[in-house]
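Hi R.,

As promised, here are both runs. First protein below:
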Amino acid sequence: MDDALAAVVARLYAVPPEEFVAVRAEEVARARAARDTGLAGTIGKLRKPTVAAWLVNLLAHERPDLVEELLELAAELRDAQRELRGAELRELSTRRRSTVAALAREAARLAGPDRGNLPLQEVEGTFAAALADSTVAAAVQEGALTKSLEYTGFGETPRPQLRLVQGGDDGPYLSTVTPKRSAPTQDDREQRAEARRREEERRRAEEEHARVVKQARRELMTALQQLTDAETAKSEAERAVAAAEKAIKSAEKRVKIAQDALADLS
């Protein structure tokens, strides 16, 4: 997608669906005025999104940082599932649910307070699909969906290869092709073993890095808590000193009054 088309797509799929057709017509007219008939034709073929798709697109354009966080969580989920790290997978699954709900709420907020009965369930379904499928994630990040997406499974699933088969009167149709696999050679086995070894080293390095970061965060939080406690103790001590000084001054004042009274009686 060239820059000119990308700019048009970003504008079109961020406007509310009810404004899409009018804005698309404006962009087609602008492209024709610039004598770019190819761009005008491409823009004219862009499809109007559903409300759910618009909400996802809106978030992608207005808060790309949140979509990036979603993709990072998706990568963590895939790694944990691939390596069967159960405890981490359970923790990430909890984050998955809260993240999907939070992104849907943010999309609704971006849509404005006047929008009622938004299809947030479809929005959450699309974000959940992005977490499970890297292709869907890329489409969400692009911000040009025309309809919401759904993923009924969890994790990545292998896609069958498809080929076009010429039929009879019914015309061509798609048929699933199962690729043939040859027996692995010694070189193949060695390469796979080396790849597994490198993957294990990478995993261990990442785990060590995560452990160090977690420990550093714990130490930082402990230090901050100790600093807060020290500041609190200091404030309490200062208040106690101030109260004592005030009591001393009050006592001195009472002594002075008593001395003056005795002097008057003499």
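And here is the second one, sequence first, then its structure tokens:
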Amino acid sequence: MARKPLPLKMLQTLEAVVRLDGVSNAAKELGVTHGAVSRQIAALEEWLGRALFERDRGRLRPLDETREFVAIVTDSFERMDAAMGRVKTARRRLKVFAHATFAMYWLVPRLEQFYARHPDVDVHVQTRQTGEDPASSFFDVAIMRGSEQIGNWEASPILQETLTLLTTRDHAAKLAPRGVASLSGETFAVSDTRPGEIERWLEIADLPPLQKWRERRFGHFHTALMAVLNGQGVTVGPIELTGGKVAEGLLAAPFPHIVAPGPRHVAFIDPHSESYPMAKRFVLWLGEAANAAV
């Protein structure tokens, strides 16, 4: 059953008249004329089908039941005001859609920097796998890799990957002094979601193609990287996304001078969305964070 709309302006006027003990005081608080207040009271009495005041030579005296009613109205207004204040100051959620590797190794470790500048925003990170259709999910910001696009959404380049050989720090220390020739007999951890990257690096390093090497295949790069961290060979990956693991001493690049160009990460936001101003702030921060990491 549909709820009948309440005459909120009339109720606000009634509450002010009773609380402030007079039409003149109510008119002053509400910023309207004496006549406007009187008309609102008359309209409310007509809406209710009964009188709310005794009229004594132009003065309005609220009936006992009117005072009881207004006490409820005042309490309701105060609770609505408090609720609106809570809604106004509540943290706003921003849903960010990003590749799992980007989210795990680059975005999440930096989120505290964003919160320090924007404490009113709660970033909800949803990871996606390569090939997953972004249209199947709702999001405010989508961080895509390579040539992926989202309709006519506003695009902002975030960072350009640089690819190099990665392995554990101890293993890198053994490989580095002997040069790329020391890779003979190595096992490459290969990710199905980043095809061609190892091949491109091998070509730049003037080494045999991938099919000449031992391989261990994984569905996603973050899984292949986990294998490398556990001593299962080497891989080729983006310096920008794995820098945290390098800084922790878990990964190292034995040949940092041999690099191959990687894909670009681009942030997409809908310029017609209600969340656009908040999403734009997030994307600007992404760019600043990426530049600071260079």
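A quick note on the second one: The chain is about 45% helix and 25% strand. Let me know what you think.

Best,
J.
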